[in-house]
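Many introductory courses stop at the sequence. We go one step further.
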Amino acid sequence: MSLKVTYEDLNKRYEEMTIRITCLCQFSTAMVGGQPADEEGLRAFIEHQLGLTGDEAEEAFKRISTDEIIEHDVTPAGGEVEEKLSYGIRALRKDSQGRPWIGDWMIKACLKQAATQVNLFMERRGSKSRVAEGGRIQAIGDSLKDQNHLEQVFISLSGPTFYEKFHGRVRVGMQLKSIVHDSECVPTESLFAFEFRMIRGFGDSAVTDQDLVDLLAMMMNCGLGSARSLERGHFRILEAQISDAAKPRERKTTKVGDEKLAKRADELKTEMVKLPEEPVAA
């Protein structure tokens, strides 16, 4: 016997055996872009942040791209530790029409961080692989703009994006590096929507609805985008809906497996009988 299936068949089966969680979200703090700006992004920064146009904008573009977006030695005179200053411009991910979007991997990373915080992976055996490897994030509703790229969750902006300057310092070996970025940000109150699918699991390892509620509650605080340590990228889940699998996989046990379990149960009963009785206190 031969069996032929199509992508549509396989996708339908995946959706039948997985639970579906849909979320409508709203940023409560600005989300910071982390993509190094290309020429288009750099010119947008000069126009919208610096307010320059024409020849002034062209001169600024040449100066920033050739002189400023490089490392500069800022070691103080007589300093024993070398220090360098790195400056860059960071942008949001956008499509050809300039619409910003969030990658599915960004939302899944947030989800995994939240799962770790609520101890889900430790309490529900196998849930880590069901989330990280078997789980799927896709855009829905107004965040779905391209049927060929469901992994792109588009943002409905509440206003124009803006730039904010961020400072940091890291140590690389014996060298200090000061990092300064002008980063493009998504304003608060902007909306996005996505769905998450995963296999629930069986028995004690099954993820419960309460587990999922705890997971979503923690996701809001883990955040999205860059500069999360500065409390950026937090969001509110305005509404979430959890739908059970239409046709979940059935738990299958073999005769050999059942016999082994029965044998081990008998052994445990015998061991319990053989336990010495504790002396009764006088």
